[in-house]
What does this fold into?
Amino acid sequence: MTKTDFPPSIRSRPVYGELAYRPGSLHLMVADGEGANALVDLVARAGAEAPGLLARAHIIYMPGPNGTDLSAVVQALGAAQFHRSPSYASAELRLRKVLADARMGLQVYLAGTEGLIGQAQREAMAAGLPHDAVQTEHRGATVRRVQCVHCKGITENVRTDPFVCAHCGLTLFVRDHYSRRLAAFQGVNIDAEDPGKVPPLVERFT
Amino acid sequence: MGLTFNTETFRGDFTFHNSPAAIRRFPFPFDRDDYMYSVNMEPHVPGPKGTVFEHNFDVDEHYLSEMRDRALVLAEDPLRCQSLPHMTLAGWDLLELIMESKARDYPDLFELHKNGNRWHWINRPMQIDQSFTFLDETTLPYGPMEYITRQAQGDFTLQDQRDDNLWIEAGMVTTQADWSLDFDIGMGFHEWHAPVPKAHELGVFDRALKFLLKLQHGAPVRRFNWTMTVDPLLDTSPENYPVWGPTRAMITPGNVGSRMHLRVELQTLHRLPRSNAIAFPIRCYLIRFDELVTIPKWGRRLHRVIRDLPVELATYKGFERNRATMVDYLARFDDGAPTSPGWMPDPE
It folds into this structure.
């Protein structure tokens, strides 16, 4: 699966590029699900630089929200450090440590779903890297991470629009308005003006 | 100046009202019979005596009741006031700007005495008498932005300037027209304006940003924005949308005059001297339809503006579902006569 093309949207909606090798002292790669293929392509495109890239690479990989697990493919790249994590939550402390220990010349590559990219990008920003110094490439599921503007709870892997908030139970429509600080899209109660008039939940993100 | 403060509520029994004098000085935002987005910024220079432009920060009859309402909102939801760590200096700049302006413009209500960094602030209407050390947060009961904006009408945001962009990184937002500081904090200029329809395509935000990046200290600017609100609810937050949303379905021909309000934001922008941030006060003025139509020119004009507004704008502003009822009501006050240029009422 190649990188995802999203329809044109509003200015707060994140856009993603294509990972490209940049010289660096440490190459931190974080990916989930089909993001594995973006790392494979990154290494292939690095050409003669590939051995040096892998010798200074630290890869954190986890299965995608749709269950895609290409751990074996990523491990076979032969990075200096490879870590398979069962979920983003379980990888977060490790990611923070790597970012905190980083020196000049750190390159960050994020690939996979928006939830993974957004959360890892937020950690990189918190560590002092400007958000545009991090490369991102979207692959795989388009499910969304959405914050309920009412109760503030975040629902992961939202597939339908509207959807039911996992925390307060309100039915929310999914806006394209996106907060990098929260790494989440915004969900707003769809039947606030006419309580109970909820349209069908349509699968919009797959 | 003989200002008396109303005792009134912006929730529950909604006793908010405008005196005849407050109606006459209402900042009616339409200077012609139609409306489309524009940058529409002008220098924020002192305006005619008695108008809302007379002073840098207008204090009116709603002051004490608005401050009580703000305290209630903050008690319910402290996330309405946030300041990212690097914005404290901008908060001090804002505190200084508001204190100096109010003490200068309303000497019978506010006093500011300085002895070096030892400042003494008196807010007579709110019965506050505070000595503190400027730039020392430990000497105030709140951070500087929260402290002073609990004593100043209108919402306030503070924008840091870097990388040729403005970043919304602090704010006191309790009287907002349906946007969330908690969600938007940290965004760049085009990001936090992203949901606004049409204006991006018109280039409004590109031009506005270019203009604001060059804003000079001591040369503030101002513009209007507006929407419609059912009942005089200052806190039309997205957070509480399930609470106030149902009132939009309650408008009838019989109550539209007494429940629908024109909501006007007088937005001013001030470059701050130490932080180089931009302060953005968003002052909300509410007026009931049946108050507004007592000014014949405004009744005529509002009818034409609302009737002819593009549907995207009416939808974004949240009143498309009530537009026909509003237009029918306002039509009774529009005899078809031409309106005079500018927004001021005609002389009586």
About this structure: The helical segments of chain A are 35-46, 50-55, 71-75, 88-101, 114-126. Chain A has five helices and twelve strands. The interface with chain B takes residues 10-13, 147, 149-150, 152, 170, 175-182, 186, 188-189, 192-195 of chain A (CB under 8 Å). The longest helix of chain A spans residues 88-101.
